């Protein structure tokens, strides 16, 4: 129990507990990189759903009665909250395998830098490896975490609905970062006419310190909420397993008692047969 709970503690939680530094990411601002980032999330979600290992078909949701027996209703695992959480937990860490490419038209695009299925083909210009590559992957992961938190209900419905039509459901209808063609709106890429770019206010060292602390705290709280939800669901699974073990133990005990009775009957029959044999010999 403790082993899996510790394993669920993600990097932001451990960073707060151990007070270790975390990379600073700037976030996604351009509409083209947001649309591309959303397509990356959809790609990973589609892979997760299509290559998902089929396991249990139903889980019991309910409480334990005074005898320790699970009382409740059976729920299809395919549409259960447990499955949604497990899929979402594995989704955003995959974003660290992505890097940003600069296209010829000036737009920016996220592309995976490694594939288990085959070779990598990269369009545009990309810097691989090093601190920049790590920061970009972390940047996309942070944005993914934020989108999952903000649009949790929409992602939950999409996961339960299956892989078909994921891109439109998430990137067009929910996050609203892509057009119907699943590409960024070109008109939004250009700055408004006669409008000078808004100067960015530089943060003071004290402001950066507060920003980093606030972000660490927010990430830690989000991770703790997810861990608590998983802990509750895993506890229910554990209780269900305990019930099954208890039932099989009772069944095994009854079989042992039945075997013992049959063995006694067998010995009695053998003794009677032996006595009859000796009597006939006399």
Q: How would you describe what is shown here?
A:
The chain has 282 residues and is mainly alpha-helical. The chain has one domain (2-190, 202-238). The chain has 9 helices and 4 strands, in the order αααββαββααααα. The strands form 2 sheets. A two-stranded antiparallel ribbon has the order 1-2. The protein has a two-stranded antiparallel sheet with strand order 3-4. A hairpin with a 5-residue loop joins strand 3 and strand 4. It is elongated and about 125 Å long.
Could you name the key traits of this structure?
mainly alpha, 9 helices, 59% helix, 282 residues
Summary, kept brief:
The protein is mainly α. It is 59% helix and 9% strand. A hairpin with a 5-residue loop joins β1 (58-64) and β2 (70-76).
Q: What is the element layout, followed by pairings?
A:
Blueprint: H1 2-8, H2 11-18, H3 31-50, E1 58-64, E2 70-76, H4 81-91, E3 98-102, E4 108-112, H5 130-150, H6 152-161, H7 166-174, H8 186-189, H9 205-281
Antiparallel strand pairs: 1-2, 3-4
Helix pairs in contact: 2-9, 3-4, 3-7, 4-6, 4-9
Structural class: mainly alpha
Shape annotation: elongated
Helix content: 55-70%
Number of helices: 9
* Beta-strand percent range: 5-15%
Euclidean distance between termini CA atoms: 70 Å
- Main sheet: strand order: 1-2
Low-confidence stretches: 1-27, 186-192
Q: How many β strands by DSSP?
A: 4
Please describe the biggest sheet, giving its number of strands, its sense, and whether it closes into a barrel.
2 strands, antiparallel
What's the order of the H and E elements?
HHHEEHEEHHHHH
Report the C-alpha radius of gyration, rounded: 30 Å
How many discrete domains?
1
Oligomer description? single chain
Can you give the mean pLDDT? 76
